[in-house]
Structure formats: C-alpha cells, structure tokens
Amino acid sequence: MGRAFEFRKARKFKRWGNMARVFTKLGKEITIAAKAGGPDPENNPHLRALMQNAKKENMPKDNVERAIKRAVEKDFTGYKEMNYEGYGPYGIAIFVETATDNTTRTVANVRSYFNKHGGSLGTSGSLEFLFDHKCVFHIAKKEGISLEDLELELIDYGVDEVDEDEEEVIIYGEFAQNSAIQKYLEENGFEITSSEFVRIPNDLKEVTPEQREALDKLIEKLEEDDDVQNVFHNIKEDDSEDEE
Fold first, then answer.
1. HEC-encoded secondary structure of 113-156
2. How far apart are CA 32 and CA 149, in angstroms?
3. In CA terms, which of 4, 40, 180, 217 is 20 to 30 Å from 72?
4. CA 78, CA 173: separation in Å to the nearest integer?
C-alpha cells in the first residue's frame, strides 16, 4: 500500500490556492467532458463524475450549468489539453497538465517559469516513464464491506490499491480502466464522492529544506497559471510535516 500513500502525503493537495481557481479548473474539466461525451450526465459517465466533484467543492450549480452550456455553443472551439514535462532545480521531475485555448501563450508561460526558477522544459514524453497514470475514486464507506473483499473484487477491473482515510475509501486503478471501475462502483451502489486522474511518481527524491523552498516557488508559480490544471512532481515530503 505504500506508494500511493506516499504520493498523497507528498502532494499535500493545496486545492489550487483559492476557491476561484478551484472553480476555474473544474469548469474547464466539465466543459471538456461535455464537449467530448455530450452535455447529458446520464449518458456521459465522466461528466457525471465531474459534477460530483463540483458538488463536493461547493461549486455553485449556475457555474456547472454554464460550463456545460459553453461546450455546446456554436462559436466555442474548445480547450486543448496539453502536457509539459521538465526538470526543476536539483533534478526534480515536474509534469504539468494544462487545458488552454491558446497553446502559444501556455507553452511560453510554462517555459518561462522553468527558466526563471533554475529548471528546464523537456520534450514531450521525456518524463512519461517516471510517472504511473492512475485514476482515483473516493467513495463513502459502506456497511458490511471490507477493504480486502473490495480490493479482491476490483482487481479484475484494473484496481491495484484500496486504502481508507477517515470517512472515505480511496481506490487507485489503471488510467485506461477508469470507465470500467466507475461503472462497477455505480452499479454496486457505492457513493462516489469525487474522482480524479493523477500521475504517481515511481521514485520520490529527498531534498534539503533550502532546495524544497526553491522548488516550491516554481511549483506554486506553475499552479497559479490559469491554464494549468495539475502539477505532479517526485519530491519526497519532509516527514516533520506529516502532522500539519
């Protein structure tokens, strides 16, 4: 069970800094999902899951409806999902996921953040081998279901780890099996409270407090950009911060 837990601890899920950024990020995801699979959540599992995420984050219903409506407007060309990979200072691998309506602006901004903070942007695909692409489902605990039984049941659906955290059960599975896992959970009466796609590093690297401070500045700059959806890295968290 170790690696996903280490990843979760290391990432610290800063929730994108503030509520406005959360809603912007979720709005883009909802628009992309509605554009790709249609505006009806009943027939679009990914959209259905994202609407649940929005509910958990207390995103106003009007914002959700606007994001869906935008996807079907005639003059809307859509967001392009682009990934950027590079190394921060001290050899730390950084994977940046974006959703943008202007790739020229986005790549220029991302490159400038790397350059100004002692890093360098690499070529597409250069860091894929350092991260495992996973889907993650958070579900409410259910009476009479053990984690072991659930994990055994879900192995055939591409799930490789089941963990618990306070009131939730957290399920990690292969990215490509996202739809199959969601279908199983919905058909078997599990309440999905939220879901996401993550990139879990194969190996976490230790850094000194001074190095961490410099890396945090780069990561925060990336996360503050409106085009950036997610930032993943392979920095090992300082054990002294576990109790924060």
1. HHHHCCCEECCCCCCHHHEEEEEEEEEECCCCCCHHHHHHHHHH
2. 35
3. 180
4. 28
Q: What is the pLDDT of residues 110-133, one digit of tens each?
A: 999 999 999 999 998 899 899 999
pTM score: 0.89
64: CB partners within 8 A, 6+ apart: 27, 30, 51, 54
**Contacts (Cβ under 8 Å, ≥6 apart) of 55:** none
Q: Would the CA dihedral through 20, 164, 244, 93 be positive or negative?
A: negative
- Please calculate the CA angle 4-5-10 and round it to the nearest 5 degrees: 95
- State how far the Cα of 103 lies from the Cα of 231, in Å rounded to an integer: 17
Q: Collapsing DSSP states into helix, strand and coil, what is residue 29?
A: helix
Q: Which sign does the torsion angle of CA 16, 29, 19, 59 carry?
A: negative
Query: CA 184 → CA 99, 171, 242, distances in Å?
Result: 29, 12, 34
